[in-house]
Amino acid sequence: MNITTFCPKKFLKQILPVHSKKYSSLPAYTKSKVTINKLTKKYNAGKKITMITAYDYPTGLAADNSQCDITLVGDSLATSILGLKSSNEITLDEMIHHSKAVGRATSRAMILTDLPFGSYNVSDKQAIKSAIRLHQEGFADSVKLEGGNDQMVGRAASIINCGGIPVCGHIGLTPQSVSILSGFRVQGKTLNSAKLLFEQALKLEQAGCFLLVLEAMPEIVGDAITKLVNIPTIGIGAGRYTSGQVLVLADILDINNTGSVPKFAKIYKNVGKTFLEGIEEYTSEVVSKTYPNPDKHIYPLSKENEEEIKSFLLKQYNIEF
């Protein structure tokens, strides 16, 4: 079965870039918008699909300029950026705020935004309303929800068919359900648990999802799901054979300078250390009075005007230079 079976042509053509070129603060359009059609062509050609998280204008701009296919505004920002203890603490309004900032920076990548915990769990109607808000207010091209049980499959189908918004499924380790999973544990390690993931993947595909995120599962399970479905799979700790990969920006750049990331992640650059070093160098120069440098950082004033101001200050306020 093909993705076109479930997604009307108007959604395959995808939404045009949200922003106009006339706003000079936005990046130049050097590449055309990533759409479901383009992702499908890449998937059919056997080319890997790339996804990275972003949380605001600077990270959204970096993601868009990097030529990553999909920018995920993930609820992981709750812990990695906002300092909350759990991703379940972030609200829909907060997700819209961050998605909107990423949207302002994005002209090329597809924006995929997480539906946060509590924004779609109650009913199909709630899920549709939340997805519409993320799309309408948060510039999301598509939304992601967690879980593959019948209720979540129904939510996905409702958002697609009634809200007209593309949906990405997410199975395996689903962080929003970490309490019921008894912690951040690898899923699909037994035959029965693997079979459950196979069934969930097929149901989400049948519901019309254009993409599946597979998190924290043995490589053979991620590979099997990728072979079972006819839509792209994006792995995060699901092995080498998924259709693409996603990682958390805060992990790959070690933004918080922890030196620690999940087993499946890799630190490519230590941006957190660079932040710290830059701030420490600045602080040191202020204390030592080497910043501001009079030859580089001071606005010039003509000698005549300077003397006039000095004379006024001396006469009026008895301030002498």
UniProtKB/TrEMBL annotation:
Signal peptide: none
GO-annotated molecular function: 3-methyl-2-oxobutanoate hydroxymethyltransferase activity; magnesium ion binding
Gene3D superfamilies: Phosphoenolpyruvate-binding domains
Keyword set, alphabetical order: Pantothenate biosynthesis, Transferase
Pfam families per the UniProt record, alphabetical: Pantoate_transf
Gene Ontology CC annotations of this record: mitochondrion
Record InterPro entries: Pantoate_hydroxy_MeTrfase, Pyrv/PenolPyrv_kinase-like_dom, Pyrv_kinase-like_dom_sf
EC number: 2.1.2.11
Known catalytic reactions: (6R)-5,10-methylene-5,6,7,8-tetrahydrofolate + 3-methyl-2-oxobutanoate + H2O = 2-dehydropantoate + (6S)-5,6,7,8-tetrahydrofolate
Top enzyme class: transferase
GO annotation, biological process: pantothenate biosynthetic process
Pathway(s) per entry: Cofactor biosynthesis; (R)-pantothenate biosynthesis; (R)-pantoate from 3-methyl-2-oxobutanoate: step 1/2
Highest taxon above the source species: Eukaryota
Statement: the UniProt record of this protein carries the keyword Ubl conjugation: no
Keyword field contains Cytoplasm: no
Entry's family note: Belongs to the PanB family.
Function: Catalyzes the reversible reaction in which hydroxymethyl group from 5,10-methylenetetrahydrofolate is transferred onto alpha-ketoisovalerate to form ketopantoate.
NCBIfam families xref list: panB, PRK00311.1
Protein name: 3-methyl-2-oxobutanoate hydroxymethyltransferase
Species in which this protein is naturally found: Furculomyces boomerangus
Higher taxonomy: Eukaryota, Fungi, Fungi incertae sedis, Zoopagomycota, Kickxellomycotina
